[in-house]
Amino acid sequence: MDDFLDVYADDLCIPGMTGEKTFLHVSDDHLCIVDDLTPEDEADRLRTREQFWKEGKKGFVGYFGEPWTEEKHAVSTGDAFLRLLGYAEEKGVDAVLSTGDLLEHMHDAGVRFLRRHLADRPFDFLAAPGNHESESCGGVWNAGVQVIEYGDFRVVSVDDRQRTLAPDVLDALEELCGEGKPIVLMMHVPLLTDGNRDTKLGHMEKYYYIDERTCDESGRRLFAILRGTDAVKLILCGHIHGYTVTEPIPGLRQITAPQGMVGGAHLVTVHG
Ligand SMILES: [Fe+2]
């Protein structure tokens, strides 16, 4: 394996499932891509943001106690993401699941980069939008609820990037949960309850989570759906730029991916 990468592994048992599926869960790549078509003022802005993250990513690594090397400082956001895709291909994963902030902000060169580098990959790709992004990005991710079916279970992505969820997204999630088929749920912003309050996640500012105590009506409905179903088996999130495993709801793990900018990723194996 590329020794630039730090891959944290977990598994999920779905009783009765046949075979296994593996997913590379990535997040917060914050791509700042400049290409030949980028206007000069936009290129300056992107280079400034690329430079900003050289220090910004180090702060998160320090908070979460994750590995830091000179190479992690030096590698660009684009190269880090390509090395993660290379690992996904080498590992033969079934899908790369991105839980948001793939792009530092919506920019045409970033979209071109994603379309080019995600085309013809031997794995599925599903992305939940992050708060740095718009709710849809043609050819990369779609608005609302997105689903990939894997026989015995499904991966479902919802848009919670503004720490709120649209009524139609909650309706669709509720309907999917009602069908009873096991779900791996993806979203950008993680959930905070009294069950995971005393953790590195809970000690961050309120910007970093949807808090059951203080959330809006859509958040309360989301918590009610999740507390009232057995269908959701695992929650995958990002936004906090660090790897955490917590249990916001008894029996339901929530795992945040480390930041892709330093070669961090989370490998999930789903098996029977
Ligand atoms: Fe982010």
Q: What's the helix and strand layout?
A:
Elements: E1 6-13, E2 20-26, H1 40-64, H2 70-74, H3 77-91, E3 95-98, H4 108-118, E4 124-127, E5 146-149, E6 154-157, H5 167-178, E7 183-186, E8 191-192, E9 210-211, H6 217-227, E10 232-237, E11 244-249, E12 252-256, E13 264-271
Parallel strand pairs: 1-13, 2-3, 3-4, 6-7, 7-10, 8-9, 10-12
Antiparallel strand pairs: 2-13, 5-6, 11-12
The site of fe (ii) ion has 6 residues, from loops.
General description of the model:
With 272 residues, this protein is α/β, with parallel strands linked by helices. The chain has a single domain (6-271), classed as Purple Acid Phosphatase, chain A, domain 2, CATH 3.60.21.10. 29% of the residues lie in helices and 24% in strands. The chain has six helices and 13 strands. It has helices at 40-64, 70-74, 77-91, 108-118, 167-178, 217-227, and strands at 6-13, 20-26, 95-98, 124-127, 146-149, 154-157, 183-186, 191-192, 210-211, 232-237, 244-249, 252-256, 264-271. It has a six-stranded mixed beta sheet with strand order 5-6-7-10-12-11, with helices on one face. It has a five-stranded mixed beta sheet with strand order 1-13-2-3-4, with helices on one face. A two-stranded parallel sheet has the order 8-9. Strand 5 (146-149) and strand 6 (154-157) form a beta hairpin. Helix 5 packs parallel to helix 6 (217-227). The longest helix has 25 residues, at 40-64. 40% of the residues are buried. The protein binds fe (ii) ion (FE2).
What descriptive keywords fit this protein?
binds fe (ii) ion, alpha/beta, 6 helices, five-stranded mixed beta sheet, Purple Acid Phosphatase, chain A, domain 2, 24% strand, six-stranded mixed beta sheet, 272 residues
